[in-house]
Amino acid sequence: MSLVELIARADARGLAASGLACLDRCVPLLDGDDEALRPLWATLADGTGDAAGRDWAQELTQVRDKLAGPDATGEDEAVVLARRMLTAAPAECAGPALRTWADACSVASLRIHRLLDPAADPAPAADVPRDAGAEGLPPLVAAELRRQIGVLELLAGHGAAGLRPALEVSTEGRRVLRAVVSRRARGRG
């Protein structure tokens, strides 16, 4: 099943985890530590039914405060995209806004990975295709596409029990992106 189809079929917890996982993998761009989004992951694990409840809004506010950065003036596109993912996160972990956010995070995260992939053309004619496989994509982008699909499949197949393995997938991706960002900074410095 394609990434687009998985997002279309996901329940609220799957959508929240999908968007959160995309943001989590991009935390190195926001100078956040590995635990920055842990409180939001915890609300998804503690939530009953399809949504995480009001704790999501409280934790989201705290995470935004913790990861608040300077004005976007002068920041490169990858950082701006990561900040937008965080800013656009809905206060309610339910409803159509959640699906819109998860979809936007997917697109933004793939764009970020394209921008940071040394093997990719940073100015592609179109967004990364999300309705097909990873064949022909630059390595960093292909890996991100596979991670996004993996997170959604874990949540679709295992419900709340899929959160821990989804977090592990996200953690692996964050480590990769942290290394890429570090290498990039050394190259500029």
Describe the structure in brief:
By secondary structure, this protein is mainly α.
Note the main attributes of this structure.
189 residues; mainly alpha
Instruction: Report the sheet with the most strands, covering strand number, pairing sense and barrel closure.
Output: none
Give the fraction of residues assigned to helices: 55-70%
Radius of gyration using CA atoms only: 15 Å
Report the total helices: 8
**Rough outline:** globular
- Contiguous low-pLDDT stretches (5 residues minimum) are none
Number of strands: 0
Structural class computed from helices and strand pairing:
mainly alpha
Total domain units: 1
Query: What is the typical, i.e. mean, pLDDT?
Result: 88
What fraction strand?
under 5%
Q: Distance N terminus to C terminus?
A: 42 Å
Order of helices and strands: HHHHHHHH
3D architecture notes:
- With 189 residues, the protein is mostly helical.
- The chain has one domain.
- It has 8 helices and no strands.
- The mean pLDDT is 88.
Task: Chart the SSEs and their pairings.
Blueprint: H1 3-9, H2 12-25, H3 38-46, H4 54-67, H5 77-88, H6 96-116, H7 139-158, H8 163-188
Helix pairs in contact: 2-6, 2-7, 2-8, 3-4, 5-6, 6-7, 7-8
